[in-house]
Amino acid sequence: MNTGMNRRSLLRLAGLGGLSLAIGPGFGRSALAQAPVEEMVIDLASEPDTLDPALTYTIDGWSVVHSVYDSLYQYGPDGALEPLLAAAVPTPVDPQTYEIKLRSGIAFHNGEAFDAKAVSAAVAHILDEKTGSQIAGQFAVITEVKEIDPLTVHLVLSQPAPWLPAQIAAWLTPLPPQYAASNDFAAKPIGTGPYKFVEWTSGDHLALEVNADYFAGSPKGQPVAQRVTYRFVGDASTRVADLLAGTAQLIRGVPVDQVKSVEGGGAKVNPVAVSGSAWVRIATDTAPFSDVRVRQALNFAVDVEGVRDALLGGYGQRLPNFFAPGGLGFDASLRPYSYDPAKAKALLADAGVAGGFETTLDYSSGERADVVEAIAGQLGEVGIKVKTQAQEDAVFNAGWKDPKAAPLRYATWRPLFDPYTLLSLVISNQGYLSRYDSPTVQPLFDSFATETDVAKRTEVAKQLGKALFDDPAAIYLTDLTSIYGVAADVTAWTPRPDDYIIATARG
């Protein structure tokens, strides 16, 4: 249930700590300062449900998956697509065919050669109905994988898909075909990445060891530890205690009110801008949220800047839609909703719900409960009584499209260099996770999905952003900053703009 935190209590809380944190170099490059240390212990906020790349949907799960596996591409510090296992960025042979050249001399951890067959195996696994991947629809556009030669693949598409390289970067991790055909690679993964899987003790930790043969010059960076132990520590204060006690060298999610304690204890705090956004999804398939005026009212009702200043250390700017600064579709000239509870009440009255109503808001237990409670409290001030419900990641991820689930859903989403994944899953009326339908947004999304001209696609993305502002699919909050805690003796580790925590450093 919400705690009734309102604007007055938020501002009072903001005045207590006087925290003023400066964003550092962000996701700049860090030189390898030393040989890999013996062990790095990393406290994550949650445990992966699986290590099957096609079934991993959380940022902590991706941190482990992308330590063991490599994608064909990744996004670099400047937001540009970089070749990883591919030798170059994808080349369009024609509007419906991508050519992908692969690096030579790469081997999986079990010695199998990395080649075109590994790409075919990964695509087939994602698309296999038995896999049950939520992102299968993102790859359904691939009608054929042609193995032109061992190091050349053609992806043949059913229609132009300018967004596909972004999907490949996040989801398509080549699999060793022989091993994958006869082994449970979801439990014991074999990849080409900087670390090899060792063991997984459910509820406690997951251990990796260095891949001594990891290829030089990888844009992912080079390993910084001989062994990496990921521990699953849901409580942020416990993660901080681990860091200060020296039992963890790197932790996710330092609370802003514990920053001084971390620094006073001799550790470092590293705030990093992340390509992502936070929002509360609003379902349009149930009253009164089917009325656009109600959804607009929710946006006017929340003092996003107050929440940010009180609970997030002042990090993040209020956004007018889902799109993150620096990503495709972000329009700096589009002003976000203002905090205007009187306007919110007037819109609710116009929509016939002047007396308010009751509703529910779900969120993952790995997210910030205090932020969710603050939002719920402010909605209560305009007459919307909100019951909040924390859920484990697996339950939360399974309930996106359930018409019986809460109409409101707090989420953070990253990366958003190209927002197609988010929009196709959550906003399109055909989306696997969608409970939103808009006659003005859908045609723009359809155009965004097929426009291959970069300049035209950018313009369509801005038009789409304006339509999502006018016909909101969410309470739009802020872009994201991750605050990592790092031990003083960790001198070689590079944070990433996608928020994966991987024990590597870029040269």
Biggest sheet features: 10 strands, mixed
For the residues shown, what is the average pLDDT? 91
Q: How many alpha or pi helices? A: 16
Q: What's the N-to-C terminus distance?
A: 48 Å
Low-pLDDT segments, ≥5 res:
1-33
User: Beta-sheet strand percentage?
Assistant: 15-25%
Helix- and strand-based class?
Answer: alpha+beta
Count of strand segments: 18
Overall geometry: globular
Radius of gyration: 23 Å
Helix content: 25-40%
Order of strands side by side in the largest beta sheet? 8-9-11-1-12-17-13-16-14-15
Notable characteristics:
507 residues, alpha+beta, 4-stranded antiparallel beta sheet, 18 strands, 29% helix, disordered N terminus
What do you see in this structure?
Residues 1-33 have low confidence and may be disordered. Helices cover 29% and strands 22% of the residues. A hairpin with a 5-residue loop joins β2 and β3 (81-83). It is built from 16 helices and 18 strands. The protein has 507 residues and is of the alpha+beta class. Strands 8-9-11-1-12-17-13-16-14-15 form a 10-stranded mixed β-sheet, with helices on both faces. α1 packs parallel to α10 (304-311). The relative contact order is 0.19. The chain is globular, with a radius of gyration of 23 Å.
